[in-house]
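Intended use. Records like the one below are meant for learning the mapping from a protein sequence to its folded structure. Do not use them to infer anything beyond what is encoded.
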Amino acid sequence: MVLLAASPACAIDGGEIARNGTQTGAPACAACHGDDGGGSIEGGFPRLAGLSVGYLTHELDSFGDGSRENETMGAIAQALTSDERRAVAAYYAGLPAPKAAEASAPDGAISSRGRNLAETGDWSRGVPACGQCHGPAGQGVGAAFPALASQPAAYLMAQLSAWKTGTRHNDPLGLMKGIADKLSDQDGAAVSAYYAALPASQVGDSR
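Structure written out for the chain above:
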C-alpha cells in the first residue's frame, strides 16, 4: 500500500491560527472576526464563516501583495506563510454560516432602492444587478464573487469606497471599479443595507 503524504497546508491547524494566532506575530483572527467567524456589525469586520476557501485565500494573498490595501490585514497576511493562509481559509470555509446578527432592516425608499440595485441594477447608468455575479440571494459564486448576504453594511460600504479610490484592485477584469464609480454614496448605502439584512448561506466548499 502506498501512503500519500499530506500537503503542508493540510498539516497546519487553521483553527489554531484563527483562535490564537501564530508564533511569528499574526494575531488571532477571532479577535476581530469573532469566535464563530461571524464578523462584527459594530466594528465593520466581515464574516468569514462559510465563505469560499478560494476567495478567502485570494484575499489573504491580496492583502499580502498590496492589491487590497489595509494596514492591519496587510501586516497579518505578510506574517502568514502561503500554507498558513490556505489553512486558515479552509478552516473558516468549513464553519457553518452563522445565524444573521441583529441588523437594522432597511425600509421605505432605501429598501426599495437597495433591492432594485441588487436584483435589477440600474441600466440607465450601466450598473448590472449585483445578483448577476454574487448570486440571487447574495450567497456568493465560487472564488471570484464573494457572498454579500449578512455582511455588515459598514464593511460593504467600505469596500465600495475602496474600489472607487483604487485601494482595492484585486477583482476579475477590474469589474468592481467600474460599478462602484457609477454608484452614488446613497446607492452604496442602500444596497449595503439590503444585503446586510439578508440571511447568510453556506458556500464554503466552493472553490
